Amino acid sequence: MDANNTFDSDLIHAIFKHIWARRFRERERSDAIDATEAEVALGTTKKNRLASEAVQRAAIIAEAEGMEKIEATHLERILPQLLLDF
């Protein structure tokens, strides 16, 4: 191979370093976005679970009273215990 047709090893090293650094930054951003989305999803799940539990407990009280609809008073009765449980 001719000496004039060789690549500068420092240039090749700099190119690879640049590409690897860029991919690393992209991966970090992607991981940060995924972590944020996971936290939001987890928070939503907890809220849904709390709301579902509140409705279920209020429904039990309404049923015990012979009512077919849940009223605000049923929710008021279960809230103190619900908050202690969660």
UniProtKB/TrEMBL annotation:
Main subcellular location: nucleus
Entry keyword set: DNA damage, DNA repair, DNA-binding, Nucleus
Localization: Nucleus
Single GO MF annotation: DNA binding
Keyword Nucleus: yes
Family of this protein: Belongs to the CENP-X/MHF2 family.
Name this protein carries in UniProt: Centromere protein X
